Each structure stands twice: as structure tokens, then as C-alpha cells.
Amino acid sequence: MPSALITGITGQDGSYLSEFLLERGYDVHGLVRDPARAAGFRIGRGHDRLQIHSEDFSDAGRLAALVKGIGPDEVYHLAAQTHVAQSTADPLSTLQINVLGTARLLSACRQCRRPPRLFHASTSLVFGEPRTSPQDETTEFRPTNPYAASKACATDLVRIARDTEGFFFVNGICYNHESPRRDPTFVTAKICRAAARIRKGLQTSLTLGHIGARRDWGDAREFVSGFWSSLQADEPRDYVFATGVLHSVEDVLSVAFGTVGLEWRNHVVIDPTLFRPSDPCQLVGNASRAHQKLGWKATGRFEDLIAEMTRCALEASDGGPASHE
């Protein structure tokens, strides 16, 4: 029976990935920094084969002992400080988690008797303000905020360990991906939740920044299948996971509010102070390598995804994100 270790297991991607692996017969171990989050973490079938461990990545020796004790066949490194605004407010903690935490995990994998295959979840924001569009695995990194800079460094650490030491380490350069489990601090979930709450009379308006911002939005459930496929390949390589299609925040508003029978313009307030000083420009991915090498391709429709997220928020008692159960 194969075994896997997932860091950041209580997040959107971690919850779907754990279910994906359990359905394939894996023993799954989850690593969390905050034990309080793990206390309420629940998934569907196979929960008896899921073991949660608490580790904040600050102690390299303790982390190495934990990884060696588990002895996983595969490691999925999803844990990160992912909020751009938080990284700007506190760049030191972002670097501590995203760069040094990754370095310590790589070191722990090196010390295993049989080093595991490792997947590191990177981000399209490493491309920052790209000179070419769409972007692929050869596009240069040009990060424009501390979060993106930290992930660019972590991505390079994984690549260097693979290329110079021969480990089966993979970077997945992930474009935006959503689901009914998306944290409501992210704009798609924030909009879907607000549409549901306004429909139910729980709030009256939604305040947003630049609604003309465009993103390459995919489905998290499709993305985690790509994560797994990247570690089943014959050789380790980096992969872009993306849909290759851009949609605007206004598109999200139109679908979400339309799903509950509302006109978004009657409920949305635009606040220029919320505009980002450096917003990603034309970040759209070319996932042809993942398609050619892994057989992976994003197939879900953006409109269906946003509508599903809104319906799930509507079904929740407070209009919040769906449970993991």
C-alpha cells in the first residue's frame, strides 16, 4: 500500500488531494502548522487511513525525524503563506514559511533511507509581469510582491535539488483554481458567498476593488489529479497547470449573482483603495507539457464552477464555504 505525506492538508487542495489518494488505496499522512485547524478537519471515505501530524516547519531536526518516521513514498508540499497582502505586511514570516520551510522539507526528504518523490505547489505569480503570453515552464520569473518572490525562490530550490542531486522533485506552477471549499478570503469564494448571503437577506452589499482584473481560473479537483500524475511520470519535470482561458472578476460577479437571480450591479460597491498597486497582468498558462506528458487537461467550464460554488454557499446555513464532509 503506497503512502503519502501532504503538507497543508486542511486547505482546499489538501482536502481534495487526500480524498483522491485515499480512493486509490494510499495511507495518507497530513502535516499541519495549526493543530486547531486539524481538529475540525473531516473528509469522506477512507478517513480511518488518514493520520494528522502537527509541525510548524521551524525545527529542521524534528521535521526530519517526522518525515523519516513516516517514510512516505510521495510528499505533496502544499503548505504556504499564500496571501499577497499578508506577504506585503509581513514579508519575513512569508519567507520563513515559504522559503525556509520548503528548504527544511527538502532536507528532511534527503535524509530518508529511500527519498520520496516530492511535488511542490508553486504559483503563476512567479511570472509577475511576463514578457510573453501565455506562459509555460520556460517563462522567466519576474515576481512583483513578497509572496511571489518567496515562491519563486522555493521553486528554484526544488528545481536545483532535482537537477544537481537527482531527486524526483517536481514543481507544479499552478494558476488560480477554485472549488466550493475555497477559503472565503479569496475573491471568487468571497463573491459566491456574498451572492448567496444577499439572496438570503444576510447582507446587503459587497465591496470590491478592481473588477476588471482577469485571471486563469480552473477547478481545484482537476488540479490535484495533475499533482498526482506528475509523480507517476517516468521522469521528474516541472509542469504548468492552467486552463489557458482568462476571465474577469466581473465575469465571476455575473455568473454568481445570476445563479441566485440577482443583478450584481445593484449590490456591489467599488472601492478604489482596494486596488492592488501591482496587479498581475495577462497571467494565462500554457499547460501543453502537462497534456503531452501526463495526459492532463483542464476540462471544466468556468461558468459551471462558479455556479456550483454559489449553489453550495446558498445551501450552507450562513452562506459560507461547504464542509469537507
Please state the average pLDDT score: 92
Care to count the β-strands? 13
Percentage of residues in strands? 15-25%
Q: What is the overall shape?
A: globular
Largest sheet: 7 strands, parallel
Order of helices and strands: EHEHEHEHHEHEEHEEEHEEHEHH
Task: Walk me through the structure.
The protein is of the alpha/beta class. It has helices at 12-23, 35-39, 60-70, 84-89, 91-110, 146-165, 187-199, 220-232, 249-259, 288-294, 302-315; strands spanning 3-7, 27-32, 50-54, 74-77, 117-123, 169-174, 177-178, 206-208, 214-215, 218-219, 239-241, 247-248, 268-270. The two termini are 24 Å apart. The strands form four sheets. A seven-stranded parallel β-sheet has the order 3-2-1-4-5-6-11, sandwiched between helices. The mean pLDDT is 92.
Strand and helix map with partners:
Layout: E1 3-7, H1 12-23, E2 27-32, H2 35-39, E3 50-54, H3 60-70, E4 74-77, H4 84-89, H5 91-110, E5 117-123, H6 146-165, E6 169-174, E7 177-178, H7 187-199, E8 206-208, E9 214-215, E10 218-219, H8 220-232, E11 239-241, E12 247-248, H9 249-259, E13 268-270, H10 288-294, H11 302-315
Parallel strand pairs: 1-2, 1-4, 2-3, 4-5, 5-6, 6-11, 7-10, 8-13
Antiparallel strand pairs: 9-12
